[in-house]
Design brief:
By secondary structure, the protein is of the alpha/beta class. Helices cover about 50% and strands about 15% of the residues. The chain is built from 11 helices and 8 strands. It has an 8-stranded parallel barrel with strand order 1-2-3-4-5-6-7-8, surrounded by 7 helices. It is globular, with a radius of gyration of 17 Å. Bound molecules: phosphoenolpyruvate. The site of phosphoenolpyruvate (PEP) has 15 residues, from strand 8. Phosphoenolpyruvate binds next to strand 8.
Length: about 260
Amino acid sequence: MARRPMMAANWKMNKTVREAQEYTAGLLPRASDAKEVDVAICVPFTSLHEVGRMAENSAVIAGAQNFYYEDSGAYTGEVSAPMLLDVGARAVIVGHSERREVFGETDEMVARKAKRAVEADILPIVCVGETKEERDAGRMWEKVSGQVGQVVDELDDAGGESVVFAYEPIWAIGTGDTATSEDAQDAIGRIRELLGETKGDGFAGSVRILYGGSVKPENAAEIMAQEDVDGALVGGASLEVESFVELVGAAQNAVAQTDE
Ligand code: PEP
């Protein structure tokens, strides 16, 4: 596998601090077995300080699910990049479809967040994806390429390793309705091509592009086997240590198979 795969958990609005501690304590020793996979857990702000502390000097990357691109000021309810760094976050989800759809985040805001995260040395996991209506109307690529293009325009000279994209078809998130592995490869392959055209082959060859949308232990191996798929962003199946560890194992096996 050309790039180091990443398995990222998105807990969404779940877990108290006590539950986060229990989960992290269970995950840490098991994640260190997956030597060739980056394992990230993107947790609510309330648990981030504790998870960041527990994950320090471990194989697990503590991540947030959102932040705002200004560093301080009159932005009630928001959290900045320096604040994330202060509590040990090394990654952040940017532009999740729930942020875009429920909280009105625009492509422009998402692009500014991606840029600010890269500047702050926090790895942004930038989510893109189409609705069912857009896919059925044949507008998947128009939507996804527009979202990717806007982010790329903001990234200046950043290298491909400083950002992660996640292709998450909205109709597959939390629905149990996974995209076929061919659909995932098709969209992710096209995103990589577009990044090659706009940022150059070096960027396209090193940027990681994850798939997200009802990934679970039963379908992970097939998705991970696709050439351009570098891992997964996982909601529901990341909430229990056991099933998330199985997904990390699927990524580790995919590396082993490519190396054979
Ligand atoms: C997500 O939250 O990004 C996600 C992909 O959720 P789920 O795995 O539950 O579909």
